[in-house]
Amino acid sequence: MRVPLPRFAVALVGLAMTVGSGWAQDTTRPHNVVLIVPDGLRAGIVRAETAPAMAALRDKGVNFRNSHSVFPTFTMPNASAMATGHSLGDTGVFSNTIYSGFPVPTANSSLTPFIENDPVLGDIDEHYMGDFLDEETVMKAARDAGYNTAAIGKVGPALIFDHTGRDGTKTVLLDDMTGTANGIRLAPWLLDALQSASLPTHTPARGDNGQAGTASVAGTKSANVLQQAWFADVLTRVVLPKFKADDKPFFVVFWSRDPDGTQHYQGDSLLRLVPGINGPTSMAAIRNVDNNVAQIRQALADLGLADSTNVITSADHGFSTISKESDTSPAAKMTIDGTPAGLLPGGFVALDLAKTLGLTLFDPDQKSAKVAEGQRTRFANGLIGNDPAKPDVVVAANGGSDLVYLPQGDKAMAGKVIDFLLSQDYVSGLFVDETLGTFPGTLPLSAINLRGTALTPMPAIVVNFKSFSTGCADAPLCTVEVADSTLQQGQGMHGSFSRGDTWNFQAAIGPDFKAGYVDAAPSSNADIGQTIAALMRLSPKSKGALIGRPLTEAMPNGAEPEHRAGSLVSAAARNGLVTVLNYQTANGVRYFDAAGFPGRTVGLSNGQP
Questions:
Q1: SS3 content of the chain, % helix, strand, coil (to 5)
Q2: I need a labelling partner for 28 at 20 to 30 A (CA). Which of 56, 147, 181, 606 fits?
Q3: CA-to-CA distance for 167 and 303, rounded, in angstroms?
């Protein structure tokens, strides 16, 4: 049965839809799309022996070998890019932890909420008139056009794809909170189908995989097998059969927590940089998500959907091993409970700035309590000033990069903060809101697409941390980065501007993609959102101008766009440091390879001809 034309009138206009570069779709029913996000999967780690299902998908379909995470290289920013096709200056999702500008009720009234959380996203949406992204997601456009839609997997990024449709009847949403009081409710048909399939109606816990460890107790030695098996079973045994029976085009997102969660918490390398995230536990996590990919593709084949479904895989970011070493940080010289002597504690940027500025540090995640000597803030964030209700400086700690906000807009304070950060050996590159002025040694936020139409507060300074290689043949596969995190040296992190973090795995296969094609042009997660919209013949409403491009060169008859490499180099600071940004351009879109101070960022050239 063909879907009645009126429900797809917006999506199916005219006899053909041309999306540039010579590629054209016909007006028959759009093919389905399944987007699989292997969270934190590095491009170079995917080989036949490590991830056979994904290696085969890449080699038989399209290999986006010049792929890019958007910066900051964290989960929620990249989820927003995939969901909308826009860069962060438009979506306002500047990191996993942001300065919200108001106390978020479901985040313990914090001003620096961690937004991988369904109720927190709901609070922020409510504060910003029901849609804090202020850009329509591709999934919402799809369901409005009559498509079936589902987002399944990791809490936070799954919901962001249709965060305004939270009643369970519009988009199927299953994540870590499913079956709890805080989860998005399940539609009656889905509850009945889960019970008929003898599947739990709540998400299994991570078990041992959720053990982060401490500085004296190693973290997990297990992949996230049980939880992800449930997500994969629900998709393949319940959701896909239902969508096939409905006989409507569908858009599904499967967001795998592995290898990300396991790489963060792995206990193979406590306080040691080697093997870091290349130990057996991380490898098991990669094989775990690879098994999920194989199961999903087999289910599509068994249901007779393989020939009508495009499967896209795109990791949100790459990954690195954590370093907590610094010779310059005041915090590394402090005695902090739970921190090994001489290493950086979680929250070192907040501790360092408070000490340097001579101001009081308050903990936004502990009801703005004053932080006593010998203590750090709970989640590494900080409010700095004399009054936590009106802080002079806010630090949103995230890992491989931090956000610094100046709520009072104090230009003199900006200069003091920048001068201090330029003196620290753990910093590699600074990006500053140009309305505060021009500061030698830094580049403007607009250079990295962080100025746009966003509703959420824009950071004043983005701090990129130093990265280096442990000496393997392929530096992005053994990158180490200083990380402002409560995790330990030797565990895993991302978020930096190294090529180890910006180089994510991307591939695609299906009826609308070429076979055996290696795409040399740059691609990004914002392009993934635009590509899905093009494949499904959707035109999501757009307010901002920071958008990706449809990857039409990967489609039949599509031509590869001309692309060039370039660099931006800041003026030199008094100590000689310059922030360098390496980028590429294609079809007017800019892609960021690496940035920082030369010699302190993996994959960064010095920007000279």
A1: 30, 20, 50
A2: 56
A3: 28
β-strands 67-68, 523-524: how paired? Answer: parallel
Strands, E assignment, 241-381 = 250-256, 309-314, 320-323, 360-363, 369-370
The C-alpha atoms of residue 16 and residue 32 are separated, in whole angstroms, by 18
Q: Distance between CA atoms of 84 and 82, rounded to whole angstroms?
A: 6
Using alpha carbons, select from 53, 59, 54, 98 the residue that is nearest to residue 75.
98
Show Cβ contacts of residue 453 under 8 Å, excluding neighbours closer than 6 positions: 89, 90, 134, 543, 544, 545
Average pLDDT over all residues of the chain: 95
The whole-number average pLDDT for the span 373-386 is: 97
Q: Does 332 have pLDDT greater than 50? A: yes
Give pLDDT tens digits for 322-331: 999 999 999 9
Distance CA 106, CA 278 (A): 36
Give dist(CA 274, CA 454) in Å, integer.
Answer: 40
pLDDT at 560: 96
Calculate the alpha carbon distances from 476 to 33, 39, 483, 499, 603 in Å: 30, 16, 16, 6, 8
User: For position 474, what pLDDT does the model report?
Assistant: 96
pLDDT score at 168: 87
3-state secondary structure of 406: coil
CA nearest to 408, candidates 430, 429, 384, 431: 384
As a whole number, mean pLDDT of residues 382-410 equals: 98
Contact 137, 82 (CB under 8 A): no
Residue 333 token pair: 């010289």
Q: Rounded to an integer, what distance in angstroms lies between the CA atom of residue 86 and that of residue 72?
A: 14
Residue 146 in contact with residue 243, Cβ under 8 Å? no
The pLDDT value recorded for residue 126 is 97
Q: How far apart are the first and last CA of the chain?
A: 60
Summarize the confidence of residues 470-476 as an average pLDDT. Answer: 97
Q: What span, in angstroms and rounded, lies between the C-alpha atoms of 205 and 470?
A: 34
Say yes or no to pLDDT of 169 above 80. yes
